[in-house]
Amino acid sequence: MHALPEYDWRPLIDSHGRRHDYLRISLTDRCNFRCLYCMPAEGVEWRDRAEILSLEEIERLAKVFVRLGVRKIRLTGGEPTVRRGFMDLLLALHKAHPSIKSFLTTNGSSLREFAEPLREAGLSGINISLDSLRRDRFAEITRRDVLPQVVEGIKSTIAAGISTKINVVVMPGVNDDELGDFVEFVRDRDAQVRFIEFMPFAGNLWKPERVFGYADMRRVLDADFNLQPIIGHPSDVAKEFSISGFKGTIGFVTSVTDSFCSGCNRIRLTADGHVKTCLFLPQRTSLRDLMRAGASDSEIATAIRADLDTKWAGHPPMDNWK
Ligand code: SAM
Ligand code: SF4
Q1: Phi then psi for 272, rounded to 5 degrees?
Q2: CB atoms < 10 A from the CB of 181, how many?
Q3: Residue 3, CA distances (Å) to 6, 7, 43, 64, 123 in order
Q4: CA-angle at 45, arms to 44 and 51, nearest 5°
Q5: Which end of the chain is more exposed for a tag (fewer CB within 10 A), N or C?
Q6: b/e per residue, 141-168, with b = 16+ CB within 10 A?
Q7: Rounded CA gap, 280 and 311, in Å?
Q8: Residue located nearest, by CA, to atom 5 of ligand 1
Q9: Degrees (nearest 5) of the Cα angle 174, 176, 178?
Q10: Which residues pair with 276 in a beta bridge?
Q11: Ligand 1 pocket, Cβ-based, cut-off 6 angstroms
Q12: Whole-angstrom Cα distance, residue 239 to residue 228?
């Protein structure tokens, strides 16, 4: 009898030649905030616990992705820190794959208690959402009055020596008058403030006129600051700049007016275990169902590769999406 051939664990390269080595794992669809641009005030109907991947299932899928060449894993959500055991998961991933860089994207509401353990868990970097430095406005945008806790959280991750990025979704008439204040926020702080264009997702009240684009952001900031480009990597999502005399740096995520699909290296796993090859494409295979039906690691890898083969070269221009 012939032995089955060994599965070919070559890297994840899609049909457009892009190597995918960055996995974003959504730990939960739940969140303790209700940001205007992301969730309705009344929340959404949360998925049943049984539908969500267990931490052990996430560990197993992470192992498969790492064998397929993933080198960077980001935990996100919903809000990842509301998932019980998220710290155990980070520790387990770090222990199983010490050379893999791990990252977290969070609303920062509970960071003060987590900053030191996160550093000990080997976290390479953290992105913290902060759309306003004004308490009343922050409360209007997130529908939670917790600005001081988030700012304390940011200070504590910087103090713990974790590479910290502050994500600001810029919206005209909402917070576009705070761009300069955010830049000042990183004058003496070792962090990057990232200005993000408002992106269209199902049901998030997006309209083209609600986008404050890169050109407008630069027009506002160039009047007061001398931004010097930092040369990055082709897969970087942000255009990055330094300012002489500033400890922190500035980034712009221009998904709407100047997308960066050609260098995309990201693949996503939803909280209920589906593959998503792009934020703007429907989810694909349920790896959860495959796993629960007894699939082997190589069968799971085959499904991931097949999904990646369907990835588009890029989303159409968003400027006039309705
Ligand atoms: N709850 C975490 C947080 O807020 O950081 C992680 C999940 S959240 C969906 C990830 C990032 O996406 C946040 O920085 C958030 O500001 C950003 N985001 C959410 N909806 C967006 C939209 N419509 N356009 C641009 N960025 C968005
Ligand atoms: Fe969405 Fe993150 Fe805001 Fe929660 S904190 S509503 S997941 S953007």
Answers
A1: -95, 15
A2: 13
A3: 9, 12, 52, 22, 41
A4: 125
A5: N
A6: bbebebbebbbebbbbbbebebebbbbb
A7: 11
A8: 106
A9: 105
A10: 268
A11: 31, 37-38, 76-77, 79, 105-107, 129, 167, 169, 196, 198-199, 201, 204
A12: 11
Tokens of 247: 């400890």
Q: 273: Cβ below 6 Å to ligand 2? A: no
Assigned token pair, 177:
């008058």
Q: Provide the b/e sequence for 283-300 (b: ≥16 CB within 10 Å).
A: ebbbbbebbeeeeebbeb
Residues across the chain:
322
Looking at residue 10, its amino acid is: R
Beta strand pairing status for 238-243 and 249-253?
Answer: antiparallel
Write the pLDDT tens digit of every residue in 277-321: 999 899 999 999 999 999 999 999 999 999 999 999 998 777 656
- Listed residue (311, 288, 312, 309) closest to 300, CA to CA: 288
Strand-pair category, 72-76 with 22-26: parallel
Helix (H, G, I), strand (E, B) or coil at 158: helix
Can you tell me which residue has the tokens 């500033």? 246
What tens digit of pLDDT does each residue of 185-194 get?
999 999 999 9
The answer to whether 74 and 104 are in contact (CB under 8 A) is yes
